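Figure S7 source data.
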Amino acid sequence: MSTTIGLDIGGTKVLGVLLAADGGVEREERLASPHTGLEALVATGASIVAQLGAPGAPVGVGAAGLVDREGVLRYAPNLPNVREAPLGDALAHATGRHVVVDNDASAATLGEVTYGAAVGRRDVLLVTLGTGIGGGFLFDGRIYRGAHNFGAEIGHFTVDPNGPLCACGERGHWESIASGTALGRMARDLVARGGGAAMVAAAGGDPSAVTGTHVGIAAAQADPDARDLLVQYSENVALGLAGLANILDPECVVIAGGLVELGPLLFGPLREAFARHVEGAAYRPAVGIVPAQLGERAGAIGAAVLARRLLP
Ligand SMILES: [Zn+2]
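Tokens for the predicted zinc ion complex:
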């Protein structure tokens, strides 16, 4: 039996999959991420593991933050009250299973390289657009980790010193203008200026409840405000992507995370804006910007692939 479990722990939800040896997802479970600290987070993870079953199957975890080589989640900007948290040990204790923990975007990269949009590639930039922005680099066929396993935190470089405050406390980080959370804030700003009626309607009439999801719903109904907002937002995403592509020269850019669900409404303006900003676009092969084939499951599937090293 070579089934493994993968958990993707993000700022909004914990998604778990039971992965067969051939890469097929046999079961999937999800719960909202608690924001009250490690104990609640571990209880949520353990509950999903119990629902997935497969007694004895090892567990891989991708967690949104700085995860060291010992499986300690040292810092997670979008998981308040979880700092210096021995996530791997605590989850192993709670589940009685072998557990390995890595960064969520590195796990998503592993998933896409093994079963998704980046199979056969050697140099890949993966970007997760969700509550925050995560990143994973495949460098010459290997996941780039840095000296402390903290590499590829691509959401946290400054694009505007006067920009919005980032979840990490810095001002104007790329994440603060280009995450899914940022899209929601841009939508609420528009509503405050008197626009975005279709988005408010999609949010049940409550202007304060408008999120990126409602932008997507309104844009799918051809609402001009929502479409314009996605063009502005894509520009923000493209600024960071172009800078990273200039530095890394990837074969392709894989976009993962909840915003992938927007499909062409996001990828159309994003590809257009990227081509305007990347260095020497006319003089280099086009860099494909493609959705994660594993969709929002990329991180959980990659975490389950990671757990295979724990199999007997
Ligand atoms: Zn930041």
